[in-house]
Amino acid sequence: MNQDGNGQTQPVVTIVDDEEMVITSVRAFLTLETEYDIHGYTDPEEAARFLETHPIDVVVSDYLMPKMNGIQLLGKAKQLQPEAARVLLTGHADKQSAIQAINDVGLFQYLEKPWDNSQLLLVIQSAIERTQLFRSLREKILELDNAHSSLKDVQSRLLRAFL
Amino acid sequence: MSDPGAVRLHAGESVEELREELDLSNRKLAEAHKMASLGRLSAGIVHEINTPIGSILSNNETIRRSLEVLRKLIATAQSEQQPLPAKAGVILETLSSLTDIDKLACERIYAVIRSLKTFARVNESDLRKVDIHEILLNTLKLSGCVFRRRVTVITNFGDLPEVECYPGLMNQAFLNLVVNAAQAIQGDGTVTVNTRQDGDWVEVAITDTGSGIPLDVRKRIFAAGFTTKPIGEGTGLGLSLTREIIEDTHGGRIWFDTELGTGTTFYIKIPIQQPRAQEQA
User: Fold this and answer.
1) Whole-structure pTM value
2) Angle at B209 between CA B207 and CA B211, to 5 degrees
3) B92 interface with A at CB cutoff 8 Å
């Protein structure tokens, strides 16, 4: 994981597209504008394996790919890391098929190709923010639950002491 | 609009006039089929062009922003009399690789456009001496847009002389066979194109690693209107038109070998030289 100057771990972004030039362009742009930890894959199966072992904040995937399409990959991502945000990048021709499957996979956003860099950046930034918010929320709920259990524990002990 | 296939007999109309009408109908049908083929390819072509354009647009923006950042880094370094920070070197390297990619992207777009231009050329209806390999490569480039990732194409080109033919029609015939070959393959596979000279003839073989042609289909496969594709997909005219182009128009032969589960090979044989103008009947 990338660490910035303050020792904070940087958000992890995964880009999946069977076209090498797309990965290079997006990576170059994100490297220039952000400090994100970027992982690019032209093979969706390899990307899925990466998702099994590396926590990520957002995955951006193309739709039309060999071996498995973007919806299938994002479906896998949802199973493996439900909190990570899922973004689909579609070419105009496959828009219809993508839209039909969007609800099944719980997309954060979908973008059309050719994408606009500043729009892509905004989507990725929002996605990361959302993922991190969900994580803090989950952690807070866990803390509350624990605190609640401790409280209930103390309460029952107190009651027993007085009965 | 009357049915282009219908031929009406008028009093006094000679066989020659009828023949001309029939020729014209055939040409119209071939043209319509060509347009339908192009239409079906267009989604793949659009996708093929969209990708490099996406890269170029993105890279252009990145390059613009990188130059801004570089300008500031240089200005700061100059004013503080410091050497350029390492980041400047990283930016310069990125800029260089991006411009390389842009060049490749532009070439890719240009290749698709060139294939389209060749295919769409209207005046290819004249008999000409052509390099068959050029026509084949063009066909492969165009159809490649649709199934490039799934199907591997192998070419084994023999030594061929120039062949006298109707290039537009040959383009059409090859396109039909190549698209059929790719569609016969479920998932991943290979399409191989072999060419060789056989005396006064040129033979082209297009092989696919598809499912093969079932027994009950084999006899009817060249019939007009016969198709194994679902309704709406294709006109069923492809092979019958291809047969007409090869056998009737060029005096050649078309046949196939097939094995279920292994694949199919279609063979086309056409004469290198077309006979001189027929004697009028």
Assistant:
1) 0.70
2) 115
3) no
